[in-house]
Amino acid sequence: MIKAILIFNNHGKPRLSKFYEHFNEDIEQQIIRETFHLVSKRDENVCNFLEGGMLIGGSDYKLIYRHYATLYFVFCVDSSESELGILDLIQVFVETLDKCFENVCELDLIFHVDKVHHILAEMVMGGMVLETNMNEIITQVDLQNKMEKSEFFPFFSLFTDVYLSVYQAGQVDTGRYCRSTCSCRISCKEHEPPGNAQKHQHRRHKHKSAKFTFLQVATARS
Amino acid sequence: MALKIVKGSIDRMFDKNLQDLVRGIRNHKEDEAKYISTCIDEIKQELKQDNIAVKANAVCKLTYLQMLGYDVSWAAFNIVEVMSSSKFTYKRIGYLAASQCFHESTDVIMLTTNQIRKDLSSPNQYDTGVALTGLSCFVTPDLARDLANDIMTLMSHTKPYIRKKAVLIMYKVFLKYPESLRPAFPRLKEKLEDPDPGVQSAAVNVICELARRNPKNYLSLAPLFFKLMTSSTNNWVLIKIIKLFGALTPLEPRLGKKLIEPLTNLIHSTSAMSLLYECVNTVIAVLISLSSGMPNHSASIQLCVQKLRILIEDSDQNLKYLGLLAMSKILKTHPKSVQSHKDLILQCLDDKDESIRLRALDLLYGMVSKKNLMEIVKKLMLHVDKAEGTTYRDELLTKIIDICSQSNYQYITNFEWYISILVELTRLEGTRHGHLIASQMLDVAIRVKAIRVFAVAQMATLLDNAHMLTGNTQRNGICEVLYAAAWICGEFSEHLENPMETLEAMLRPKVATLPGHIQAVYVQNAAKLFATVLKSQEGNTDSTTAQEASQLMIDRLPLFVQSANLEVQERASCILQLVKYIQKLQQKDVEVSEEVCALFAGELNPVAPKAQKKVPIPDGLDLDAWINEPPSESESEDEQPKAIFSKEEPKHSRPRHTEVDEKELARRREARKQEQANNPFYIKASPSSQKVYQETPGVEHIPVVQIDLSVPLKVPGLPMSDQYVKLEEERRQKERAEKKKKDKKKRKEKRSGRGKKHDSGPESEEDITPAHMVDIVTEEMPENALPSDDDERDPADPHKALDIDLDKPLADSEKLPVRSHRAAEVLKSPAEDEEGENVSSLEPKKKSSKEKREKKKDKDKDRKKSKEEKKKKKHKHEEKEEADLLCGQADEPAFQSEETNEVVTPPTSTSADVSDLDFWLSNAPVPSNTQEAATVAAAEAAPAPGAISVTTPDSEPEEPKDTEMEETKSSKHKKKKQKREKEDKEKKKKKKHHHHHHHHGDKGGEESVQNGTVEEEEPLPPMSNYCLLAENSYIKVAYDIQGNLQDGSQVVVSVIFENKCDSFLKSMEFNVLDSLNSKLQRPEGSGPHDSLTIPFQLPPGVSNEARFVFTVQSIIMPQKLKGTLTFIVKNEESSTHEKLDFKLHFTCTSYLITTPCYSDAFAKLLESGDLKSSSIRLEGVNMPFHHLLARICFHHHFSVVERIDSCASMYSRSIQGHHVCLLVKISSQTVSVDAKCDEPTLLGNVLDEIKQTFSQC
Which is a Pfam family this sequence falls into (chain A) (predicted)? Predict the structure, then answer.
C-alpha cells in the first residue's frame, strides 16, 4: 500500500500532497516538513530509499523518492510494494505529467495542482497502484478533459467572441457563463490576461534550464 | 430576482479562480497568512451563492488551501453540494476536495450515500470512475455496507476502466466492512483471469494485500497464482504474485518446493532488476520455510547470495541498498553463506550513503562471532568517532550494544573489555541513548558477578569525573549513565577500593543540577556507601573515619532535602535523620554497622523478562472483573497526579526479592530444573553456558589481567578498550597452549597411541572459552510458567477482521445488503425439508463448545490435524460473526432460518478445497488422492443451491463458470503432479496416512466431533474406494461412485485411467449401454448411444481422471452397466485401435452420502417408528473396533453418531433421502449389525454389501 504521495520543491514548499490515510491538517504539514527535512539533506548520488519517518508509518514504511530538478517526488509505502517498482512508478508519473503538460515544469504543478491530482488518480487509487501503462493513463486523462470541455462547448462557442473581447477589455462581465468560460481558460494558456501571461512566460523561461535537467534526469534514470 | 442575479454575477467578476489565488499568494510572500485569510472570507461568500459554478470554483480553491495546511472541514457540506452537481467538471472538483479532506468522522458523509450510488450507476463511465476514486479515499463502514453491492456489480462492468477501479476499491470496502469479503470473493477471484490486464493486475493487487495479512486463508489460491506466475508477462503482476508467494510459503512448505524451480528460472532469465530482486526475496522466503530437508538447498542459496553480491557491487546505490536488505534476510537462517561476504559488507560501512551504512550495520549483527567481535566493534568505534550526524552515530551506538548483548552476551569473552567499551561510549556528546548504556552497565554488573570489582572501579572513576559528563546541558542524555554508575557503586560498594572518596564524589553540590531521578539514586546509594564505610571501620579502634563519614553525610544531605524533586527530598530527609541518629550512637561508641547494613541486605536475582506474563491465571480468577464497585466517573480525573511520581521512575530499576528466603529459592530452582529436564520442549542451554557462576568459582577463567589501573582509569576519556584486544589474544594463546599441554599429558598418560592428530589447526568457535560467565540460566521464571510464547496481534488491527475462511460456500445470510430487495429477502429462505439436517443443525452452540474442548484436548503435532483444527476455528469464528450480524442488523429477519442451512453445508466443500490444494501440492499416489478429488467433483458438479443466489441477477451465472474453471484447472495440475509422482515414493506412505485422517475430517465433517475417539486410537491402514473396473496390457481403469449431494437422481462416477504401456494413448472414448434405470448423461444434442470423448491423452506411465454423471431413477437395487472404452495406442512406428469392455457396478452404497447426524436427532428418528429393521452378523472379524467403524464409514459412507465402548450407532442418508441407521456391536470377533431404514430393499442390499466388504478382508 502507498500511504502518501508528496511533491515539494527544493525549499520544502508543497506542490501536491495526497494522503491515503487521514491525518489532521497540522500533522500533514508536519509530515511534509519532516519528509522534506529527511530527503533534502541527502546527496544526489545516494540511494532513493529512506527509512525512519517518525510521523508517518513506522518500521514497516519506507520513503521512496526521486529528485527532478527543482522537485522532489516522495512516495511513502509499506513493505508490500516493490521498492524498484515504485521508483519506476514515479518515473511513469513524471513522464505522464510531462506528456500532459507538454514539457512540464514546476510552474505547471503550482498552477494546476488539480490537474496533477486528476492524473495521479488514474495511476494510484486509494493507496493501490491502479495503472502503470502511460498510454492508458494519458488516454483516460485526455478523454476526461475532452469531456470537461464538451460540457461547456455549446456555451463556449456562443459566448467566446463576446467573452474574449469583454475579458480583454476587462470591464464588463458576460454574466452567467463567465465562470464556465473561465474554466476553459485554465486549459488554454493563450487566454491568460496579458500582463500576467507575460509574467508567467518569463518565469517559464527562467525555469527552462531546470526543465532540461528535469527531463534529462528522467531519461538517465530510466 | 433578476436584479439579484445580475448583482451576483457582477460580484463574481471579481472572483478569483485557482490560478489567481496561487498567483496572489505568490505575490504576497510577506503577509501570506493575512492574504489567505481574506481569500477564505471571499470563498465563504462564494459558497453562499446559489451558482454551482461559483461554488465549485470556491471548493477548488479550498482544496489548494487544504494542501497548504488550512482546515477546510467547515466547507464539507458545500463540497457535498458540488459533488452532486450534474456536470462532470464540478463533480470532479467536488470529489477531489472530498477525497482530500473527508474522513470517518466527517458527519456529512452520510448524506453522500445516495449521491455516490447514483454516480456509480451513471451511464457515463467517468462519473462512475470519479466517484470510485473519491470513495476510495473516504469510505466509511456505513458507506461500505451500503455500497458494497453496487460496487460488486461494477466489478462485472463492461468497461475495463470501471472494472479495475471497482476491483481495487473492494479492498477498502473489505477493510471497512469485513462481512462483504466472503460474498465478493468469488467474483474477485474470477477477476484474476480477466481478459483486461489492468483488471487482472488490480485483482492481484487486492488479493495480495488481503493475503499479506491473513495468508492462510488464501493458500487455496496458490494453484491459480502459480498459473498466473508462469503465464503472465506483466512485471507488475509478477512482482505482486511473487511477493504473495513469499507470504504463503511459510505456511505450506510443499508450495515452496514447487516454486523453487520457476523462480530460479525467472532469476536466470529476467532482465528487470525489480523482478529479479523480488524473485530472490521469495526464494529466500522459501528457503527459510524449508530451512532443512532438500539437499539442493545450498545451490539455491548460493545462487541468491551470488546474485545479491552482484547487486551490492553495482554502482547503483539503490541496488546496493536492496542487496544488503535481502542479504539480512538470508542471514537469519543461513549465516554461514553470508559470512563469507564479510569483506563486502565491511566495505559498505564506509559508504557515503547513510541508508546503506545502516543496512550494512544490520548485517553485522548476524556476522559476529566470539572470534571477531572485538575486531568488528573496534571498527565500529572508529566509525563512531568519525560520524558527523548524531542520528547515524546514535544508530551506531545502539548497534554496538545490540551486537554485544545479543543472545545473552553470547559472543563476549571478556566483560572487562565490554565495560570499557561502554565507558568509552559515554564520551559521546548529545546522544539520546544514555539510557541504553546505563541499562547495559547495570545488566552486566548484576549478571556477571566476576566483573563487579572491575565495574565498580570504573564506575567510581566515572562518578569522580561526573562533571565531564554533565558540563554541558546539551549532553543531557548521557548523564543517565551516572544513574547506573551511582547505583553500581552503591550496590556493590564492598568491592570499592576507596569508598570514602566515592561517597564524597556522590555528595558534591554539583550533583544537585542532575535530573531528579538520578539525584534520588545518588542519595539512596550514598546511604549504601555510608553503610559500607561503617562496616569497614568496625572493629577498628580508631573511629574517626566512620565519624567523618557521618559528618560528611550530615553536611551534604541538607542540600538534597531542599530539592524540588519530591523523591529526592523524601529520601534525603529520611536518610539525614537516620545518619544523625547513627552519629549519636557513634558518639556513645555503640556498634551500629550491623544494623545499618541490614537496611540494604539481600542479593539480586535476575528475572526473565517474560516471567510475569507466563504466570498462568488460576482458575476462577477473572482479572477484568471489578474487585470493588467501579468508581464513579468523576474520580477518574484524580488519577492524573499519579503520573508525577511514576514518570521519573527509571525503567531499569529491578525489584528486590528479599522476602523469599534462600532455601525456598533453591528448592524452587531444583523443582524447575527437574521439570525442565522432563519437558522435551524445553530447550536446554548448552553445557558451556550452563555453568552457574556461583557454583563454579571459575577463577581460572578470569584472566589475571595486569592493567595499570591507576593510569588509564583516572582519565576516563582515554580509549582503552583496545588493549583488551591484545590481552584477549594473549589469553587465548595461553589457553590454547595449556590445552595442548593437557592434551600431551593425556596422550602420554594413555599411551594408547592411536596416532590421532589432536592439533586442530585454526581455533574453532567452541574452543574460545569466555572469560566470564553470564548469569543466564538462573533467570527466575515463575513456577508452572506456560511454555507458549504467543505474541498476539494488535486487537485494533483492521486486518484482523478480515481473517475469514473464504473457501466455505456462501450462506444466504451473507448476501450483501441491497436496499431495494430487502423486503423480498424475508420470503426467500429456502425451505429445507430434510428432517435430519434441520435437526442436526439446531444445536450449533453445543457443538462449538464441544469443539472447544476437543481443541484443548489434543494438541497433536500432526499437521493435518492442526489444519483441521484451524478449520474448525475458522468455522467458529464464522458463526460468531454471523451471530454478530444477527444482532447488528435486526432489519433482516431472514437470517435466522438461513443460518441453519449454513451450518450444514460447509464440511464437504471446505475439505474439498483444501484437498484440491493438497492434490496440487502433493505427489501422493493417485488412488487415495483422487478419492478426494471425486469429492470435489461431487461438490462442484452441481451448483450449490445455498450459495450466491437471487440478490443480483448477474451473480447467477458465475457459479457454474467457476466450477468449470476449477475443473479444468485441477485436471491440468494433476498432469503436472503425476509426472513427479515417482520422484517421491518415500513420502507416499506417510501421505496416505495423512489422507486417511483427513478423510475422517472431511467425510465425517461435523461428526468427527462426536466420534472423536477414532483419532485417539492407533492409526488406520490406508484405504481406497477405487476398485478395478477393467484392465488390459495397455491401460488400467479404476472407478469410484459418489452420490450427488444436490441432486437426488444423479451419481458421479470418477474413473482413473492409467497408461501401463510405453506408448501414447489417445482418442479415448467412453461408452455405456444405458439401462432403463440408469443413464449416462451425455452432452446435449448427442444420441443415447453416443460415446463420450475423454478430454485428455495419456503419455506413457501417466494416469488421469475423468468424471461421468449418471442419472438413476430407483436406487434401492444395485445394478451393473456394460460399457466399452475405445482408444488408440500410438507409438513411433504404428498406431492401433484398441477396445476394453467393462462392467460398471452401481452398488447401493454408492447412493449413500455421508451425512452428519446428532445423537438426539438420531434418537428421534429411531423413535418415529417409520423405519423397518433388519440385521446381520459377521463372524471372524479380526480387527480393532475403530478400524471396523472406519471401514464402514469409509466404504459405505456412514458417519458415527455415537460410540460407547464396543457399540456404535451410525447414520447415513441416500441421495433420495432414505435414512439408514446402524447399531454395530462387537463381541469377540463377532459383529452384529442391527439396521433400520425406511426402505427395506435398500437396507438389505446395503447390509449385503457391508457383509461383502468384511468377508473380503
Answer: Clat_adaptor_s
